[in-house]
Amino acid sequence: MKTNPPQPRLLADVGGTNARFAWQRELGAPITDVHVLRCAEHESLQAAIHAYLRLIGQAAPTTAAIAIANPVTGDEVRMTNHHWAFSQRQVCDEFGFSTWRLINDFTALALALPVLPAADLRQVGGGIAQPGAPIGLVGAGTGLGVSGLLPDGRGGWIPLEGEGGHVTLPAQTPRERLVMDGLVRRYGHASAERVTSGQGLLDTFDLLCEADAADRAGIATAAEVTEAALAGRHAQAVEALDIFCACLGSVAGNLALTLGARGGVFIGGGIVPRLGSAFERSSFRQRFEAKGRFQTFLSAIPVWVITSSQSPALMGVSRALDALS
């Protein structure tokens, strides 16, 4: 009996710092050949795709799906936290893609949530998720991603595509107000992303050191702030990391209330999984629940940190392609 040849797929998860590419031999096949390319080392998305295809020794397939850390509102895409800009139509023409999906990276991650294995999750407080209830998703990395899943009434899910990371972030303490005021001076707007991201962590540290006339001790990157905080060797680094975790708790709690996310809230992104048990000891959970009369409502909602070694967004964009089949 004649069988149809495999229809391979190019998959990608493109952030402001790294672009993760993968190959899928056909619908339902394992995701393989995962390579991480630094965005700064490639002139454009197209250049990065060419580099990946050379790495794995494959010609461009006719099917591709890409998750990108950016709103997708039309043919022209210009990344918020990186210089890449491109026309979707021109990318398809250059590589011969006849089937193409471009979606927000956290929309892709949301699509992967129902199939994430328990081994890739670490629970931080709360009780048991309510089946069929809305699910929230936030994640801090180069930026702050926000998404979620709403039940479609037929046993499936509708992913949310928005830019919740850019909502205005209110301060809860005098020190947070100091940081927010400094961010407004620098950027004109103190958004959630301005605190709960890599650059936000570094900015918070800088503003605290400036206010306290403290020596920065040569700390110049978000990774160095985190390292100093976890080692307890710089007071402003310790405080900056706790403000980061507290504000992320406020954002996640706001999302849980907005969606009625009794199905739980997931924490993705590259920063929180690296904090280990320090995240559980931080102010995150207290601030997640600190919503006055709705504290009891929120205390029951479980939060999970996604600890997958492979980007779950790759699975999400594959599922987005499945929906077209």
UniProtKB/TrEMBL annotation:
The UniProt record lists the keyword Nucleotide-binding: yes
Name the UniProt key words of this record, in alphabetical order: ATP-binding, Cytoplasm, Glycolysis, Kinase, Nucleotide-binding, Transferase
Reaction(s) catalysed by this chain, per the record, are:
D-glucose + ATP = D-glucose 6-phosphate + ADP + H(+)
Query: Which InterPro entries does the UniProt entry name for this protein?
Result: ATPase_NBD (IPR043129), Bacterial_glucokinase (IPR050201), Glucokinase (IPR003836)
Q: Which residues bind ATP?
A: A12, D13, V14, G15, G16, T17
Record-linked Gene3D superfamilies: 3.30.420.40, 3.40.367.20
**Top-rank lineage group of the source organism:** Bacteria
Quote the Pfam families the UniProt record gives.
Answer: Glucokinase (PF02685)
Uppermost EC category: transferase
Which EC number(s) does UniProt give?
Answer: 2.7.1.2
* Compartment annotation: Cytoplasm
SUPFAM superfamilies, alphabetized: Actin-like ATPase domain
What CDD domains would the database entry show?
Answer: ASKHA_NBD_GLK
Q: Name one GO molecular function term.
A: glucokinase activity
Q: Does the keyword Lyase apply?
A: no
Q: Which family does it belong to?
A: Belongs to the bacterial glucokinase family.
Task: Quote the HAMAP family the UniProt record gives.
Answer: Glucokinase
NCBIfam families the record matches: glk, PRK00292.1-3
Protein name according to UniProt: Glucokinase
Q: Which organism is it from?
A: Hydrogenophaga bisanensis
Gene behind the chain: glk
